[in-house]
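INSTRUCTION: Work out how this chain folds

Token vocabulary: learned, describes local backbone geometry

RECORD BEGINS BELOW THIS LINE
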Amino acid sequence: MQIIKKIMNNFGSLLNLIKYPLSTEKSINLYKSRQYTFIVSKELTKDQIKFVIEKIFNVKIQAVNTCILPTKKKRVGQFIGKKTNYKKAYITLKEGNTISDLIE
């Protein structure tokens, strides 16, 4: 929570913690049940993710589920490297709340 309190006044810093919303077929189908999927900074905890999403989108959150996806191998020519792993957050909103910016 220390990180969030330091940058709470700067809205741009809050946006940097949430990298982007995930728009796959599975995540779009979850919109009906008020669930949204975001790729977030790996250092954030569930409480911090909840705080940041509530401040950015002005909604009330019921639950936050997270998972850290494993790294994948990537081949470029003769070199084999690893893609960076990232944290995915599934956000469930309370009844009557929606994030209309993602639906459009």
In short: The first strand starts at residue 18 and ends at 21. The first helix runs from residue 2 to 7. The chain has a mean pLDDT of 85.
